[in-house]
Recover the amino acids of this structure.
């Protein structure tokens, strides 16, 4: 059974930073991919970033976070991180960790989802 456990959400002022973590278990980490999506109240869930897991380190980002967010991984811990800098009020959302299959050279088709962690950015 695949489990994705997120941590690290919270409240921060605009311009601040947060780091989200997602630990995967019951999942074939190597050769697949993981990433993050977010959903603000009343809006659809949007893709944020993904990384090819298990030593590849290929990453991809949504334009809205490029240059501010960094996705990384610790292969030994089957854990993916999302470092979020220069946060804006529009980054406020529930952030979901996800895991899935690679396609297209940089993309990830998410199959499994975590429970989510709330990020709130105040102005």
């Amino acid at each position: 059974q695949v489990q994705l456990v997120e941590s690290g959400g919270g409240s921060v002022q605009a311009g601040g930073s947060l780091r989200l973590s997602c630990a995967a278990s019951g999942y074939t980490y190597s050769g697949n991919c993981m990433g993050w999506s977010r959903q603000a109240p009343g809006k659809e869930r949007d893709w944020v970033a993904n990384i090819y897991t298990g030593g590849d380190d290929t990453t991809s980002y949504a334009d809205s976070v490029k240059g501010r967010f960094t996705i990384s991984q610790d292969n030994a811990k089957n854990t993916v991180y999302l470092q979020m800098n220069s946060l804006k009020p529009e980054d406020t959302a529930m952030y979901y960790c996800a895991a899935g299959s690679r396609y297209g050279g940089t993309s990830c088709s998410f199959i499994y989802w975590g429970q989510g962690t709330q990020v709130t950015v105040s102005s």
In short: Residues 50 and 60 are 5 Å apart (CA to CA).
